[in-house]
Amino acid sequence: MYKKILLPTDGSAYANKAAEHAIWIAHASGAEIIALNVIETSSLVGLPAEDLIVRIKEMLKEEGRVALDHIFEMAAKENVEDGDLKVTLKTEEGSPADAILKTIEKEDIDLVVMGTSGKHGLDRFLLGSVTEKVVRSAKVPVLAVHSE
Known about the structure:
There is one protein chain. Helix 1 (13-29) crosses helix 2 and helix 3 packs parallel to helix 5 (130-137). The protein is of the alpha/beta class. The protein has helices spanning 13-29, 50-82, 96-106, 121-127, 130-137, and strands at residues 4-8, 32-39, 87-93, 111-115, 142-145. It contains 5 helices and 5 strands. The protein has one domain: HUPs (Rossmann fold). Helix 1 links the parallel strand 1 and strand 2. The model has no long low-confidence stretch (mean pLDDT 86). Strands 3-2-1-4-5 form a 5-stranded parallel β-sheet, with helices on both faces.
C-alpha cells in the first residue's frame, strides 16, 4: 500500500515513538523510510556575529545527525530480525513544516508518520505545532503519533 514513508525527526521521544510506528508500517508494506531532520534557521537571523551563527548552525547540524543516526540504528535492529528495510537520511534547512511539505512533493511520499510534539513545546502554543501544519496542508495521509 505504501511505497515511501516520510519520518520527520528532531531526536525527541515523540519522534522516536513515531519511528517505531513508521518502521513497523514499512516492514508490513515493504515501503522505504525517508527520515528527515530540519534545521530551523530563522531564529539565527539577526544574531550579531557571523561566526556565532556558523557555530550554532554546526551544533544544530550535529544534533540532527545524532537524531538521524538513532533512527537508522532503530531500523537496523529491525532489519537484522526481519529482513530488508531501506532507510534514507536527509537534512534540510528552514521552516520544519515547509521543509516537510516540500519533501512530500519532491520525494513522492505516500504517508507521513510524525510525533505530536517535539522539543520546542512553547513554540507550539505561540506558532502552532509543526504536526498540525503538516496535517492541515499535506495531500497525503499523516499518522500523528502521541507519546506519553
